[in-house]
Amino acid sequence: MTKSIFKEGFLWGGATAANQLEGAYQADGKGLSVADAMPGGKQRWSILAGEEFDWRIDESNYIYPNHTGIDHYHRFKEDISLFAKMGFKCYRFSIAWSRIFPNGDETTPNEAGLHFYDELIDTCLNYNIEPVVTISHYEMPLNLAKKYGGWKNRELIDFYERFADVVLKRYYQKVKYWMTFNEINSPFELPALSMGMVKSNGGGVWQNIFQAWHHQFVASAKAVKIGHELDPNLQIGCMIIYGTTYSYDANPTNQVATMIQNQEFNYFCADVQVRGKYPAYVKRMFEKYDVQPLEIKADDLALISAHTVDYIGFSYYMSTAINETTTAEKVQGNILGGVKNPFLKASDWGWQIDPDGLRIALNELYNRYEKPLFIVENGLGAYDEVDENFYVADDYRIDYLRKHIVAMGQAVKDGVDLMGYTPWGCIDLVSASTGEMSKRYGFIYVDKDDEGKGTFNRYEKKSFGWYKKVIATNGTDLD
User: Active site at which residues (predicted)?
Assistant: First the structure.
């Protein structure tokens, strides 16, 4: 076999989030999460960004696909066996905060919730699949958003620390790889997902958003401290969205705008968590967003400095282009949009497909931080058509992934230290951006539609066998 450019022990696998696949949203003592209050459908983001949204669940007017997910809560053994059949070396998932602390502010955890993750983790290990755990992935307890106003409230640091302490102490001997927050930079566009903040509880005010980030930076550092005190060899990372950003042209105005976009969206949160300090450009950011000095306790900055992350996890789906000098067509994206790049094609949802942008992202991140990198989300959301046997010939997905893996290999040749690759939604699940099932990413088709109808049975797509071969050859056979 051709020698692989990927290191021995490279972590091939897949990624999910509890709120998007588990379902069983009130089973065994679980409390409501912010995701449980997010309506499904293409109007989801406009509803969350509206003035009136206040986290109330309104089943008379909306559907809530996250309530059932794909019933992974009852079918996780079947799902993990399919991951094992593909040859997964790792599986990235999250622990639903409200399964462990239903309201978020209790002092005693819910043992039934912990028991579920006991079984899930043990099932992974029985198949020699390395668990990769996101502590908080867009599923904070709803009570913390409604009663406390989300992450702008400093009390959430203590609640998160208690949650992290419980799960780290419970699983540190079984789980080596952790991430503290999913896509921590997403509030630049929508603070509802990771901060529990909408306009009705302060999410429309930049002062609150930056204060909430500070609280999350402190909370992340506390989790790193807990984990490293339990076992210095634990690998605890941050996780950001990375959108490789191009100037539309050589106009210096667009070049400067691109520099600022990179600093704010791609680097700010990572700079704090990886370098352990606020970057110099934060002064200009605070002026731009009219942010007054944050409320910072005496030991906050020392804690952030002392407990930086071990690696950088990131999601990469697309690149974006910046044009502030002329009128240009806008496009959609993963949180971050931009203007249409005439050199790129787009997905069914308008996300611009750019494998070379992944190589650029890997180089930019590694050369800036010199920390190991982990691509923990990447994939193609598409409309899949099934035949009479529920088979999906998803050559378009294979093509997307193949080209991105080639780009990964080029980055490794460039000198990047790459730990692993976990494509998003390795099994079809509920979309975070729209709450749809029809936006499918998986290697495994799940028979559920946007209205929640279907058998929920699982079927292998064409990409299932293809990815199995990729893993078995450590990325050398991509045909």
Answer: 377
Q: Does 377 qualify as catalytic in the annotation?
A: yes
Per-residue pLDDT tens over the stretch 426-448:
999 999 988 999 999 999 999 99
φ, ψ at 192 (rounded to 5°): -65, -40
pLDDT score for 350: 83
Does 1 score more than 70 pLDDT? no
- Residues 96-153 pLDDT 10s: 999 999 999 999 999 999 999 999 999 999 999 999 999 999 999 999 999 999 999 9
Q: At what angle do helices 72-86 and 111-126 cross, to 10 degrees?
A: 20
| For range 352-372, the mean pLDDT | 97
- Of the candidates 443, 475, 429, which has an alpha carbon nearest to the alpha carbon of residue 94? 429
pTM for this entry: 0.97
Could you give the CA distance from residue 91 to residue 84 in angstroms, rounded to a whole number?
10
The DSSP-derived string for 303-371 is HHHHS--SEEEEE-S--EEE-SSS---EE--SS--EE--TT--B-TTSPBP-HHHHHHHHHHHHHHH-S
Residues 313, 333: Cα–Cα separation, whole Å: 19
Q: Tell me what pLDDT residue 332 has.
A: 65
**DSSP-derived 3-state class of residue 209:** helix
Beta carbons of 322 and 247 less than 8 angstroms apart:
yes
Q: At what angle do helices 72-86 and 462-472 cross, to 10 degrees?
A: 50
Picking from 419, 415, 424, 431, the residue whose alpha carbon sits closest to that of residue 467 is: 424
Q: How far is CA 304 from CA 172, 222, 224, 273, 278, in A?
A: 22, 8, 10, 7, 9
Q: Predicted confidence band at 346 (pLDDT cuts at 50, 70, 90)?
A: confident
Report the distance separating Cα 108 and Cα 100, nearest Å: 9
Cβ–Cβ under 8 Å, residues 173 and 115 = no
The domains of the chain, with CATH numbers, are 11-472 (3.20.20.80)
Catalytic residue, candidates 22, 183, 264, 377: 377
CA angle at 212 for the pair 99 and 379, rounded to the nearest 5°: 65
Three-state SS annotation for 99-151? HHCCCCCCCCCCHHHHHHHHHHHHHHHHCCCEEEEEEECCCCEHHHHHCCCHH
